[in-house]
Amino acid sequence: MFPFRSIGVAVMLCVESLACAQQGTSSGHLGLLRRQLEMRKVALVTDSSLHLKSCPQKEMYVLMDKNELKKAGLKLFPVEMEKVFHPAVYDFIERTFLHLSLLQMKSQREVLLRQDQLSLLVNGLNYKDCSVDFCSILNALDLKYPFSLTADSTRYQASWQGVGMKVDLLFPKQYDLLLGYDKYELTQRLITNLSIRQTDFRNAPVKWKESSLQKIRGNVFYDRGDVFMIPQMKSGTYLMKKGTAWSYLFNAYFPEESVLNLFSHAHQMNFLLPFSLAVKGYNSSAAKSIGLADFVSLMISEGCRPYVGIETMDSKQITGTVIYLNRDLMYEHLLYFQLPLEVFHKKDNVRIKAVLYPYIPLNNLENLYADESPSAVVQSADFSY
Questions:
Q1: Residue 263 in contact with residue 275, Cβ under 8 Å?
Q2: What pLDDT digit, counting tens, does each position of 176-207 carry?
């Protein structure tokens, strides 16, 4: 049991309100690109093989969902290509070069690069200092030439070593930029996705090698993960072995270990109990009643890694915090939860309660003394659906 108030950890730089750690942008990247496509008379219908008018050797694609532009970009990376980072990073590169190619003047491209804090280098020189035709730059973006995508703590660098031309694109690890939506749009999309069933409960066999696990007690084992910020916020999996079969631990005799499993693997545990969720995002709030398995499945599908910490445990309930961390896109979803111990008996009227603060930039995290404990946040939330 690890009381958070004594540890003094807060996961937001803005203590008065998490909203101030969620500053909104004026318009999403996809919205700006759509306007450029409309100005250039590009038909907004799903098409995977459009030729770029300004550079006919290059192909572009458009993906629509009803009237919404879901994706668009130059065709730079094959679908079957093994991707080291989150797919949104590759989508962003394709989208950015399409956006640049739609702009007719070099000065317009320089403005876009500056606004999005991008650096485009040609043979080591900043694009604004080069006199190279932009179509020549696009033609160098070909996987027949050596390509690399690397990252440090704050930015990515995509590099192509073409014949006589090296092209580098450097861009920040900023999730709203990479995903193409502003923070309000992202929050609204998350709220909508919470209403969509994510899990089909086709439980795959749990397979582990006992030699790689830490034995806790008897037939209980721990597949150790890592920690985030403090040792008490940890990831991993607790397992039970019966004969040669493995299963996820969910047992009243191991409540803290079971809670880590629930918020990490509920979608793989066929956990069907209801989950009351209050969402408090950028200029947005909502209350949902969903399955915990669906919620966890959505978090995992975003590429987030769960880290679970226990605040308190008494004879009735466990309270604590879960951080769903996306390092590639540099954000976290912060969840405060209140879990009745009756969940271990699966009574019909048992309900887990939680408050979710979505899309907190990782550069807004700081160790501070929390004004409120997770349990106080949950108790003060409005769960009216």
A1: no
A2: 999 999 989 999 999 999 888 766 655 555 67
Enter the pTM of the model. Answer: 0.87
Look up residue 364 and give its amino acid.
N
Give the CA angle between residues 98, 103, 106 to the nearest 5°: 115
The identity of residue 3, as a single letter, is P
Residue 20 in tokens: 């101030």
Which pair of tokens denotes residue 200? 């089909």
Within 8 A by CB and 6+ apart from 102, the residues are 33, 36, 37, 39, 40, 54
Helix locations, 25-105, DSSP H: 29-39, 87-102
Q: How far apart are CA 101 and CA 138, in angstroms?
A: 8
For the record, the structure tokens of 156 come out as 């990515």
With b meaning 16 or more CB within 10 Å and e meaning fewer, what string describes 348-365?
eeebbbbbbbbbbbbebb
Distance from first CA to last CA of the chain, Å, rounded?
Answer: 32
Could you give the residue ranges of the DSSP H alpha helices within the chain? Answer: 4-7, 29-39, 87-102, 106-115, 134-139, 175-179, 183-193, 255-265, 292-301, 374-379
**Residues sharing a CB contact under 8 Å with residue 363, sequence separation 6 or more, in sequence order:** 154, 330
Residues 142, 160: contact at Cβ < 8 Å? Answer: yes
Tally of CA atoms within 13 A in the half-sphere of 69 that contains its CB: 23
Angstrom distance (rounded) from CA 18 to CA 374: 13
**Other residues' Cβ atoms within 10 Å of the Cβ of residue 374:** 25
* Ranges of residues in the chain whose predicted pLDDT is under 70: 1-27, 198-206, 347, 364-376, 378-385
Helix (H, G, I), strand (E, B), or coil: what is residue 134? helix
Cα distances from 206 to residues 80, 222, 287, in angstroms, run 27, 13, 33
pLDDT tens profile 226-235: 999 888 999 9
